[in-house]
Design brief:
The complex is a heterodimer. Chain A is an all-alpha fold. Chain A has helices spanning 2-29, 34-39, 46-55, 62-74, 89-124, 129-143, 146-160, 173-202, 205-212, 217-241, 249-254, 260-269, 273-301. By secondary structure, chain B is α+β, with helices and mostly antiparallel strands. The interface between A and B is large, with 55 and 62 residues.
C-alpha cells in the first residue's frame, strides 16, 4: 500500500512539473505582456516601456524567467504580480481562495444534503408526480445558464423585494444568492445521478433476493440499493472537489465576489504571468490530490477495486 | 463663456494686493502684463461646505475592475484614478471643464520663453500623517520621476525638465531643457507624495499605503472588492462633507444598474449598458451627466500592409461604413460621428474644417476602381491577383464592439472588401499592432494627451509606442515637436489644426465615433455642478458633495 502511495505521489509530482512548464510556456507564447496594459493610455515612449520591462525582468530569456520562477515557487515564494505590484501573489491568492472555498463548500454540502434524498425518493416513486417534478426542475437547473439565474435572483430579491444585497459580501446575506445558484446547478446534477443509479440498483438480483427474504421495502432500499448506488455518485463528488476553487467564475463575476475565478480570468486577460501560473499550479496540485483521495476512498468502500 | 472673458473675471476677483504683486513679479521676469494675464488660469473659490451642506455618511460609487494600486504613478486606469485622486493633490489640477486649477500651488508664473516655471506653494498644508507639505516634497516627487532607474510610468512627462530648485520652503522653480507647452497640464498635475515617507518605505510599499494631502485618507483597501477612504479633518480646503468615500468593484453592468436603483450605491464611475443609461436619463430623481468621451472609437489599420497602405483604400472604407447606423443599432444613439482625432469636447483645439467622409458606397466604389481594384469572384475585388481582403482582430469577449465589427464587415462587403474578424486578448493587440503584426483592430483610444492637452505625439509619431497604425507623415513629424515647443496657445492651435486636417485626409485609421460618457448619480448626492464637460473627472470633486 505504501509503495502504491509513493508511486502515485511521484506520478503526481511529474504531472505538476509538466503542468507548470506547460502553463509557463503557454503564457509566454501569448504575444504581449502586462506592461502594455499597466501603462494604459498614459503618454509613454518605447524606450520607457523597455525600461519598465527591464525593471520587471520581462526582458530576460524565457528559460531564465522560468528557472527563477520555479526556484521561487519551490521555496514557497509565489512571486509578484506585475499589475498589483504592492501585494505578494501569495496574499492575492490566499484572500481570493478563501472566498471561493467558503462559497463552494457551503454549496457543496447543501447540495449533497438535498440531492441524495431527492434522487432516491424520485427513483423509489418512479413515474410519479414527485418524480416528474424532480426531473423537470433538475433539467432546468442544468440547462439554465448560471449568470441568468443569478441575475434573475438579483432582480427578484434585491430590486423587487429588497431583501438581499445586490452584490458583494457585506454580511452573511451576501452568500445566499450565489450559494443558491451553485446549489441549483449541483443539486440538479447529483439528484439525476442518484436517481439513475438507484433505479439501476433496484433491478439487481441481490435486491430481488432481499425482497424474497421478506425485508420491508424501506430496509431493502436503504441497506442494499443505496449503498451500492452511491458508488458512481461518490466518483462524481470526488471529481467535483478538485473544482471547488475554480468552478465559479461566472457566479463570482455576476455577484462581484473577489474570488479565485475572478482573479484568474482577470489575470489571464492582462497576461499577469505570475498570478496565472501560481493559480494553475495550485489547482493542479488540488486535482492530483483530489484524484488520489478519491481513489483511496474508493478502495476503502469497494474492496473489489483495491490494488495490491 | 469665452476664454478671454473668463480670464478677465478671474483677474477682477483677485484681491488688489495679489494682483499687483503678480504683475510686479511678472515684470521682473520680463513678461508683459498682457502675457501675464493670459497665464493666470482660474483659481476656484474654495467651497466645500455650502450653507445647506450636510455632514456625515458614506458616498458609495461603483467601478468595474479591481483597484490594483493606490500610487499616483498607477493613475492611468479609471478605477484607480477615482481613488488616488481623493488621497492626493498636485500643484495644479485640471478640472472637469479642462480648466487648470491652482491646488497645492497658490500661484505660478511661466517665463515667456517657456523655460522657467515658478510655483509659490500654499502654506499650512498637511499630509495625512500630520507632517507639513513643503517644496522638498515637490522636488522629491519630480526628481523621483526624472530618475530613469525608477522607470516610472509618468517619467516621460518630465523629459523636458532640466532641474528642480527650491530657493525657499514654499517656492519651487522648474528649469526646462527646452520649452514644453504640455508641462503645466502634464508634469505639474502629477500628484505629490511626502518625500520623507515615500523615501523611507519605497514605491512598492507606497502602492498599498499612500499618504497624501487630499481630502480623504486611506481607511481600507481590498483591491478586488472595495476601497474606502475617510475624511481628512486637516485638509487645507476644509474637511469634506461626507465621512467616507467608498468604491465597490462590480464587473457586471446590469448589476451596477440594479445597485444604483436599489440605492445600494450612489453612482457608477464606469458606464452601464446603453439602455440602462438612457432609462436613468429619462427618470426624474437621478442626476445624469452625458459628456463626450475623449477617446475615439476606431479601427487602427496597418499602414505598411500591402493593401491598406493605399490611402484611397482607407478613404473608400470610411465612405463605405454607415457610421450612423452603427451608432443607432449598437449604441442606441449614445455616440457622435467622429470627424477628427480630437473630440468635439476638446473645444479649444477641435478643428471643424477637416475632410469629412459621409456614408456613400458609390464614392467608396469609385475610389476603389480608381485604385485599380476590380470586382472579382465571390464579390471580393482583385488587383494583380491579390484579393482585397484583410483581418480585423477584436478584443476577446468584447461584447460591445464585436457587433460593431460585424456591421463594418457587412458594409465593407457591400463595396467588395473582405474583412475577416478574429478575437485576440487586449494585451496581444496592444503589443502587436505597433509592430505591424496585425492588419487591423477595433477599440477606443485617446489621440490627445488628456486633461485638455492636445499633443498626440505618443500615438502619431514614427516609432511611437502607441502608433497603432504605423502612421508615417513627414509634415506631422515636423509639426508635433513644434507644437510642444510653442507656448503661445493661439499659435499652437494653428499647428494642431493642421495636424487634424492631415490625419483626416490620410485616414491612417478609420475614425468612427465618440461614445457618450454617462455618469449617473442617485437621489442622495447633492452639491453636484449644473453642467460639466468631462463626467469622468467629476469624481475628483467628491469632497464637495454631501448626502441628503
Amino acid at each position: 500500500m505504501l509503495r502504491y502511495l509513493a508511486s502515485r505521489l511521484m506520478q503526481g509530482a511529474v504531472v505538476i512539473l509538466l503542468v507548470s512548464i506547460g502553463t509557463f510556456s503557454m503564457m509566454h507564447f501569448i504575444p504581449g505582456d502586462p506592461v502594455d496594459l499597466m501603462v494604459g493610455e498614459a503618454q509613454v515612449t518605447q524606450e520607457q516601456l523597455d525600461m519598465i520591462r527591464r525593471k520587471w525582468g520581462l526582458d530576460r530569456p524565457v528559460h531564465e524567467q522560468y528557472l527563477a520562477w520555479a526556484s521561487n515557487m519551490a521555496r514557497g515564494d509565489f512571486g509578484q504580480s506585475v499589475i498589483r505590484t504592492g501585494v505578494p501573489v501569495r496574499t492575492m491568492i490566499g484572500e481570493a481562495a478563501v472566498v471561493t472555498a467558503k462559497l463552494n463548500l457551503l454549496a457543496f454540502f447543501i447540495s449533497i444534503a438535498i440531492a441524495l434524498p431527492m434522487g432516491i425518493a424520485a427513483a423509489v416513486r418512479r413515474y410519479s408526480g414527485f418524480d416528474y417534478a424532480i426531473m423537470v426542475s433538475s433539467t432546468l437547473g442544468l440547462a439554465l445558464p448560471n449568470f441568468w439565474i443569478g441575475l434573475m435572483l438579483i432582480v427578484l430579491f434585491s430590486l423587487l423585494l429588497g431583501w438581499l444585497p445586490p452584490f458583494g459580501l457585506p454580511s452573511w446575506k451576501g452568500y445566499i444568492m450565489p450559494v443558491a445558484v451553485i446549489v441549483a446547478n449541483q443539486t440538479a446534477l447529483l439528484a439525476r445521478m442518484m436517481r439513475a443509479s438507484t433505479i439501476e440498483g433496484m433491478g439487481e438480483d441481490y435486491v430481488r433476493t432481499a425482497r424474497a427474504k421478506g425485508l420491508v421495502e424501506r430496509v431493502v432500499v436503504s441497506r442494499h440499493v443505496v449503498r451500492n448506488a452511491l458508488l458512481p455518485v461518490v466518483t462524481v463528488i470526488g471529481y467535483r472537489i478538485s473544482f471547488l476553487l475554480s468552478g465559479t467564475i461566472v457566479i463570482e463575476n455576476v455577484f462581484a465576489l473577489p474570488g479565485l475565478g475572478q482573479l484568474f480570468i482577470e489575470s489571464v486577460n492582462r497576461v499577469d504571468y505570475q498570478v496565472v501560473q501560481a493559480i494553475v499550479l495550485l489547482l493542479s496540485v488540488l486535482v492530483v490530490l483530489g484524484n488520489l483521495i478519491t481513489d483511496m476512498f474508493y478502495g476503502y468502500i469497494d474492496p473489489r477495486i483495491r490494488i495490491g | 463663456m469665452s476664454r478671454e472673458r473668463d480670464l478677465d473675471q478671474v483677474l477682477r476677483e483677485l484681491s488688489p494686493s495679489t494682483r499687483r504683486e503678480f504683475l510686479k513679479r511678472a515684470a521682473a521676469m520680463g513678461i508683459t502684463a498682457a502675457a501675464a494675464q493670459a497665464m493666470i488660469i482660474k483659481n476656484p473659490t474654495i467651497v466645500t461646505a455650502g450653507p445647506s451642506a450636510k455632514r456625515g455618511g458614506t458616498i458609495r460609487i461603483l467601478s468595474h475592475q479591481e483597484v490594483a494600486s493606490l500610487s499616483p504613478d498607477d493613475i492611468g486606469p479609471t478605477m484607480q484614478w477615482n481613488m488616488i485622486t481623493q488621497i492626493h493633490n498636485a500643484l495644479v489640477e485640471v478640472n472637469d471643464n479642462f480648466v487648470i486649477e491652482r491646488v497645492l500651488a497658490s500661484n505660478y508664473l511661466a517665463s515667456k520663453d517657456g523655460l522657467l516655471y515658478t510655483f509659490t506653494l500654499r502654506q499650512g498644508v498637511k499630509f495625512h500623517d500630520g507632517s507639513d507639505f513643503t517644496a522638498a516634497d515637490v522636488k522629491y516627487t519630480f526628481e523621483y520621476h526624472m530618475n530613469p532607474d525608477n522607470a516610472t510610468i509618468q517619467g516621460v512627462l518630465f523629459k523636458a525638465v532640466d532641474k528642480v530648485e527650491t530657493p525657499d520652503k514654499y517656492t519651487v522653480v522648474v528649469k526646462m531643457k527646452e520649452p514644453n507647452a504640455a508641462f503645466l497640464r502634464q508634469a505639474a498635475t502629477v500628484f505629490i507624495v511626502p518625500a520623507r515617507y515615500h523615501g523611507r518605505i519605497g514605491e512598492k510599499a507606497y502602492k498599498a499605503a499612500p499618504i497624501g494631502t487630499g481630502p480623504f485618507k486611506l481607511k481600507e483597501w481590498r483591491p478586488a472588492e472595495f476601497t474606502v477612504v475617510e475624511a481628512f479633518d486637516q485638509h487645507f480646503r476644509g474637511r469634506p462633507n461626507a465621512d467616507f468615500f467608498r468604491q465597490d468593484v462590480v464587473p457586471d453592468p446590469s448589476v451596477r444598474a440594479i445597485a444604483l436603483r436599489t440605492g445600494t450605491s450612489d453612482s457608477s464611475a464606469w458606464p452601464l449598458l446603453s439602455e440602462d443609461n438612457l432609462r436613468f436619463e429619462a427618470e426624474p430623481g437621478y442626476t445624469v451627466f452625458r459628456t463626450s468621451s475623449l477617446a475615439v472609437n476606431h479601427f487602427p489599420l496597418n499602414n505598411d500592409h500591402p493593401i491598406l497602405s493605399d490611402k484611397r483604400v482607407r478613404q473608400a472604407m470610411m465612405h463605405a461604413i454607415d457610421r450612423q447606423r452603427m451608432i443607432d443599432d449598437v449604441f442606441r444613439g449614445t455616440a457622435v460621428i467622429a470627424h477628427s482625432i480630437f473630440p468635439p469636447a476638446l473645444q479649444y483645439w477641435y478643428e471643424k474644417g477637416v475632410k469629412q467622409y459621409p456614408y456613400s458606397p458609390d464614392r467608396a466604389r469609385a475610389l476603389l476602381e480608381e485604385a485599380g481594384w476590380r470586382m472579382g469572384p465571390g464579390g471580393v475585388r482583385v488587383k494583380d491577383g491579390t484579393r482585397l481582403s484583410f483581418t480585423c482582430a477584436v478584443i476577446t469577449g468584447d461584447r460591445a464592439r464585436r457587433p460593431q465589427a460585424e456591421i463594418a464587415q457587412q458594409d465593407l462587403a457591400g463595396v467588395g472588401i473582405e474583412m475577416r474578424i478574429v478575437e485576440r486578448p487586449v494585451a496581444t493587440i496592444l503589443s502587436q499592432l505597433p509592430k505591424g503584426e496585425l492588419d487591423a483592430s477595433l477599440f477606443n483610444w485617446t489621440y490627445n494627451a488628456g486633461g485638455g492637452e492636445p499633443d498626440p505625439s505618443a500615438t502619431l509619431r514614427v516609432g511611437a509606442a502607441r502608433n497603432f497604425s504605423r502612421f508615417k507623415n513627414q509634415r506631422v513629424e515636423e509639426l508635433l515637436p513644434a507644437g510642444l515647443r510653442e507656448v503661445d496657445p493661439a499659435k499652437r492651435k494653428k499647428i494642431y489644426s493642421e495636424v487634424q486636417k492631415i490625419v483626416a485626409e490620410e485616414v491612417p485609421f478609420l475614425h468612427i465615433m465618440y461614445w457618450d460618457w454617462f455618469i449617473i448619480f442617485g437621489r442622495r448626492i447633492k452639491g453636484l455642478p449644473t453642467s460639466t464637460q468631462s463626467g469622468s473627472t467629476l469624481i475628483r470633486d467628491a469632497y464637495k458633495w454631501w448626502i441628503e
